[in-house]
Design a protein that fits this description.
mainly beta; 126 residues
Length: 126
Amino acid sequence: QVQLAESGGGLVQAGGSLRLSCVPSGRLFDNYAVGWFRLPPGGERSFVAQISASGRITDYADSVKGRFTISRDNAKKKVYLQMNSLEPEDTAVYYCALRTDYGANKYREPTSYGYWGQGTQVTVSS
């Protein structure tokens, strides 16, 4: 069983930065791609970013491209989401997840991820 724990959320002014961390426990996560998703108030959960198991391949939602950076340190067993130039529209609960379904072109779908953290709140004030 894998458990994931996110941290690093908080309240920040527009234009500010935050770095989220995701730490797994249990099984090794080196062989798994990891994704970040977010759930805004009154909205739906959506894809933010994904990083391959090796860390060589990344992908981002258009809304965060150029502002957010996903990275991982397999030696430390951590995945990060560096968020810069934050906007009020980025306000959401952010979740990291371990990808378990590697079907073609499914990495943006929440159903492709079998393990999820509890989430960390990010609030961006205007």
